[in-house]
Amino acid sequence: MNDLTSGLTGTEVTVLLVLAAAVDPVRNPDLKLLGPALEAPSRRKLQRNGLVDVEPGARRALVLSLTDKGWAAAAELLESPPPPRATPQLRALLTFGASVGRYLRRESLALGEVMTPAAPVPASTPSAPAPTTPATGAASTVDLVRAAYLRIAAPGAWVALARLRAALPGVPRDTVDDALRELYPEPGVHIVAEDNLKALTSEDRAAALHLGGRPLHAIRITR
Hints:
Helices cover 44% and strands 13% of the residues.
């Protein structure tokens, strides 16, 4: 364990990895569905160390998400030895994580660039789903984003998200963000961060898509 993760228990280590895998904030009661439950002393410790944000959620449940420092700690864990007295399950998890960490280092990728949130599960109802409109429906907004991209660039060209958003006037930012998150894991879609931060304009920074604790600035669609 290094500076960011020294002194963490096996449960605390596992929770950081669970939050990284989830990407989106997780309700504290739901953590036990994804990994170990997080008791109050450990939750306060992770918050005190600046690794997680804790916010009040619905029905008085606390909602946890990784801070930037927490994302750095999760990435650090991928190539760290197990903590003292680690369970066999945690040793296996970190052995698997080490392989992921080696891949990220080889490809010069950040952990947040490869973690994607799970697609929302549609509610099961006996009636047919309500139709969606191009301005608000998630699936139709994905089509709008693809169409806007092709209006302003050839397939495979890099397009700044600021330029893409400008090509979607009238579509709410949150709706575009949801569509971009849905597109992110699709084959042929690449949404990346600008390595040269000095090259970013204020418009680029404002238009960034925040995914996995990292701002992303450009998109390329090859198919």
